[in-house]
Amino acid sequence: MTYDLVLQGGEVVFPGQGVEQATLAVRDGRIAAVLDASEKPAARRVLDCRGKHVFPGLIDPHTHIGFGDKENDWDTETRTAALGGVTGLMSFWRGNELLQSTGTWRAEADKRAAVDFGFHFGITSHAHVAELESAMATHGVLSIKVYLMYKGATGAAKGFTEVDDGLLYAALAMGASIPGAVVGVHCENTEVIPLFREPLKSAGRDDLRAWDEQSPGFLETENVFRVAYFGEKAGCPVNIVHMSSAESLDLVRRMRHPNRPPIHVETCIHYLSLSHDEPIGAIGKVNPPLRSQADIDGLWEGVRDGAISTIGSDHVPRKQSTKGPSIWEATAGFPGIAQILPVVIEEGYFKREIALETLAAATSSNVAALYRLPRKGRIAPGYDADFAVVNLDGVTQVQASDYPSNSDYSPYEGRRLRGRVEATVLRGTVLVDNGHWVDEHAPSGRYLFRR
Predict the structure, then answer these.
(1) Across the strands, what pairs with 397?
(2) Quick one: average pLDDT of 83-103?
(3) Proportion of the chain in helix, strand, coil states, percent, rounded to 5
(4) Phi/psi at 63 (nearest 5 deg)?
(5) How many angstroms separate the Cα of 187 from the Cα of each of 114, 155, 243?
């Protein structure tokens, strides 16, 4: 029997299970067999993975494609993702209406995306809630996001006038009625933020820590309680996206109960690796803010014990020119999709000795399970042949110029992170080889339609 592709003799990371040396055989884009490492089956192509680790392809649950160069982001950002071992991503989509506009945005991605992709719907009005059921069924979307940071004056400045607790509850009630739906929420109490912000600005503060002080962690935690409590009353699973505060995680631990709807938690690599003391100024502005080292350590313990189930990047591919002239005028967010795996290996595996299978679950299988992504996130026969081949003895020296992203900087610029992605495989096709994009590949990403 001849296979299309064989990954020979690597240390295979099975999410949530363990690491075992094995040979993986691929046919027709799917894993056909997991074989003993000593076996050498015939194949049209063989990747020698001895001495390297084979992870399931990463699935980034939190990206903002189109926030940089909308016309070209599907091309540049998905190629950047592949260089980091990411074979799938979920991106937020919002518009005046969802049912009609989503198809146009999906068509753009179909033409340009290099990796597989799916959507979360952004909910900012009651009209969105009214069309959710039909829009979700039509476009195969089972996840939505409510932006509590757009309440009041903050939302009005962006044209959002309906974001309040009533919209939150309405979205949760609708989510409860749709099997498999998950409601994600950006938790940040923007009604209190001005009380802290104005004195800081008046004092002339323009440092990264000031951005944390104007929106301290307890303003996230307060919103986490509101979301989890409303979710319980509405009977809807909730997902606290990009959690930044250890106090918020402690609250979730106390609120979880077998008889309540699930409270899922996502964090992002910057909340696991960058503090408000980084010497990067406005480049590090993000919502919620970067926090303290104690928050970083507390969130990592949540990854270790499973209290945090998914890790993403919150990738925003804008230019560095938008990050100023001061912390107050700079845009929020920064790129990071290509650094997910190097960061979790450096900070999680090497520095904190968290098991590779735990890290793989948080970046692949847990994402696929939460968002019901078919045939994704695991290394087992029948699943899509999506892999990231990593040399743990290698080093990733972060330089923005090494990636095709529209963004021309990185908050990790110059950092040496242990672990180097040497190959990325999407449904049996080698997209990245020896750390470089394989140029002859046309865009091969497929839409992740969910039921």
Answers:
(1) 416
(2) 95
(3) 35, 25, 40
(4) -135, 165
(5) 32, 14, 8
